Automatic annotation (TrEMBL):
Catalyzes the reversible formation of acyl-phosphate (acyl-PO(4)) from acyl-[acyl-carrier-protein] (acyl-ACP). This enzyme utilizes acyl-ACP as fatty acyl donor, but not acyl-CoA. Homodimer. Probably interacts with PlsY. InterPro entries: FA_synthesis, Phospholipid_synth_PlsX-like. This is Phosphate acyltransferase. It is an enzyme of class 2 (transferase). One of its GO terms (biological process) is phospholipid biosynthetic process. Keywords: Acyltransferase, Cytoplasm, Lipid biosynthesis, Lipid metabolism, Phospholipid biosynthesis, Phospholipid metabolism, Transferase. It is found in: Cytoplasm. The gene is plsX.
Length: 329
């Protein structure tokens, strides 16, 4: 199996990518890891024997306009990675770079699965029980019709079972109340359609309950999902910053912090996004994974683990097969 990685993207690139790749190369010696980046960056390191280099001449910065960038920079690490997956030169591609550019390149160069109207960006949110919840969409498409939410639910259920290991994953619909009649006309129609699917649909889910693990897959439009994602990250950051302030305020607080330190570390680990790898772009014809922009080496290694299982479990062919059955019906 060959997994390609964008060396140029991310807040901590290229160091975090190099370190994460070394961890993964040691853990899975059967993998071929292909690093895509500018030649001068790639040549600055030494690598394990199962790492290959693919030099490019361009890279896409975080602030560039996605569509213009991928059209203008055809030899950038993001475009080349997506094209390698399309051409069968890599089984998966991972990037922590420009999210919009990766989504655009995935659509233009890797392509959608037949029968999928809109791909979805699907990260795993940490939950209080440590299992996590797959949320889709969080920004690939700001708007979504009821039939798109149905496709998200079906793709998410397959991914949650095959990659995340959830048996009969519970699928919920993000809404402003748990009652069936709540929400907009779109969510009401989506509720009706989801109820008819051969999945374990548990109904509407309110945002305040998401982190309590009431479902394994949460379906929403990209606008709502992105707000949920950013709010969750912001609240978590604010809580940990405030705790740090309080625990260092007085000597008594410092003593209490020392006593609570093991428990706080366990809690921080359980709520750490880096433990869950990256976010797949479900609905594309190849395995494309978006790593968090602030990914460290641990997050990159986990994204590689996730991409490996993505390919091993043949998620794309299973999604294609299920949607294909619908077309034949």
């Amino acid at each position: 199996m060959r997994i390609a990685l964008d060396v140029m993207g991310g807040d901590h690139a290229p160091t975090a990518i190099f370190e994460g790749v070394r961890q993964a190369a040691e853990q899975w010696p059967d993998l071929r890891l292909v690093l895509i980046g500018r030649e001068e960056v790639l040549q600055s390191q030494t690598y394990p024997s199962n790492v290959e280099l693919h030099p490019v001449t361009e890279s896409i910065d975080a602030g560039e306009e996605p569509v213009k960038a991928i059209r203008r920079k055809k030899d950038s690490s993001i475009v080349v990675g997506c094209r390698m997956v399309k051409e069968g030169k890599a089984d998966a591609f991972i990037s922590a770079g420009n999210t919009g550019a990766l989504m655009a390149a995935g659509l233009f160069y890797t392509g959608r699965l037949e029968g999928i109207d809109r791909p979805a960006l699907a990260p795993v949110f940490p939950t209080m029980d440590g299992r996590g919840v797959l949320v889709l969409d969080v920004g690939a498409n700001p708007e979504a019709k009821p039939e798109h939410l149905v496709q998200y639910a079906r793709m998410g259920a397959i991914y949650a079972e095959k990659v995340l290991g959830f048996e009969q994953p519970r699928v919920g619909l993000l809404n402003i109340g748990t009652e069936e009649g709540k929400g907009t006309e779109r969510t009401k129609e989506a509720y009706s359609l989801l109820s008819q699917l051969p999945i374990r649909f548990v109904g509407n889910v309110e945002a305040r309950d998401v982190l309590y693990g009431v479902c394994d897959v949460l379906v929403c439009d990209g606008f709502s999902g992105n707000i949920l994602l950013k709010n969750t990250e912001g609240v978590a950051k604010a809580i940990f910053e405030r705790l740090k302030e309080e625990f260092t305020r007085t000597w008594l607080n410092k003593l209490a912090a020392a006593i609570l330190k093991p428990g706080l570390k366990r809690f921080a680990k359980a709520m750490d996004y880096t433990e869950h790898g990256g976010a797949p772009l479900l609905g594309l014809s190849g395995a494309i994974v978006k790593a968090h922009g602030s990914s460290d080496a641990n997050a990159i290694a986990n994204a590689i683990r996730q991409a490996r299982r993505f390919v091993e479990q043949a998620v794309i062919s299973q999604i294609s097969g299920e949607i294909g059955d619908d077309r034949r019906d």
